[in-house]
Amino acid sequence: MADHQQIFDQLCDHVRETAKLENINALLGWDERVMLPERGGAYRADQVTLLAGIIHDRNTDPQLGAWLEELTDSPLTEEPNSFTEATIRRIRSDYLKQVKLPKRLIEEFSHSRIIGQQTWVKARADNNFGTFEPILDKLISLSREMAEAIGYEGEQYDALLDFYEPEAKTAQVRQVLETLKSQLVPLVAEIKDSGRQPNLEILKRNFPIAAQEQFGKVAAAKIGFDFTSGRLDVTHHPFCSTSGPHDCRITTRYDEDFFPSAFFSILHEAGHGIYEQGLPEEWFGLPPGAAASLGVHESQSRLWENIVGRSYAFWSHFYPEVKKAFPAALGDVPMSDFHFAINEVTPSLIRVEADEATYNLHIIIRFELEQALLSGDLQVKDLPGAWNEKYTQQLGITPPNDADGCLQDVHWSAGLMGYFPTYSLGNIYSAQLMEQAHEDLGDLEGMFAAGEFAPLLGWLRENVHQAGQCYPGDKLVERVCGDPIDSAPLIRYLRAKLGPLYGIEH
User: Fold this and answer.
1) Which annotated residues bind Zn(2+) (predicted)?
2) In this structure, are strands 247-252 and 240-244 parallel, antiparallel, or unpaired?
């Protein structure tokens, strides 16, 4: 009779060792986007390619398959969604996917991703889509090849979406986003017709970068990001990266003449980092020590950035401090004017700076475009025109150039096809979770106004973070909130906040 516990321990040791290599890969990725000299990109691509091949060998090791064969349907899987059962189930799911991917494809994809990101940085700076087109075309071709190798029952896009939102299906996500769009469009129209507009000039004064960094760190620490296990740096496109159980790195980019750009980016990435820092440390490197999905990950960043960070209660606590940090810029600005300005709703070009009401329209555009790119219905050379057409139709604004159009995001340059819809799923999850937190905890606004963020953080730790990957993202949120994925709470939240500001029904 097999000793299932001993086999399980061997399985976990193997996967934890592989995770160390993946963490090294993450560190190389962080360095490439934050510290790497311009001419170091080609050799970094070679380093990452070598490491990706080694990781793939371990992920497809026949011994791993043999252990999983022994453990599947063993007594260790009898308790559904336990840490042990989830570990076996998730590792098996990943193994069955990885064994279908040729090592050659993994290595070529990893190499092309680094070249893609390096090329994208220069192409965006030069506003030159032509220099980016060949590598993007290659990355999409490789993504298509990966989807075909993995296989799918519904749509080709399903195979890639599963990397980021396990068990989600394109058709389901499409329906959720179409429903959300149908609710957002009239809300945005009502706001536009209200005739009210905040004074945005107050956000476009001079905000010294050193003071922005210091204030951003204070706010991030206050909401729960642990700087003894993390750090903040500067990059071209903000992100969060974890390289160890006590090594979580967040990044931002500063604009000395626009306060929201860096500050809300810091809150957003700190939200990601807080989730990473709240996962079960003793299970690091295994499914219970990893995020449920990118949609859930995004729910944490958007919750802290927007639902908390743009609330009147949040600034009731922080506004005296921000006025001290920027006396020349904000000394004469009432808090009500500042709060209205940071919650402005108007169609804009840049996704990461979009307001809450129009943000998901940016995501829907990308979701539609990358499906068309993957299927071949849209050729890469035609992407700039298709992008501009959708922005004109859906947001009523046309990008003046490709740098602020189809070159604005890093994701496609990194081969992250299937990633974008998780942002909107995250927005929906965040509103569902926040409604439940209000019900369970009571007067959260009063707590925020008093600078007390620990009760909400503790609630998220207990209900979301500590579950790791025991449940798929949508099932985890349903378990916490009692309802399946539903965009109604997000619309209720937006109308409750924006209604008084714009004088519309809420």
Assistant:
1) 268, 272, 298
2) antiparallel
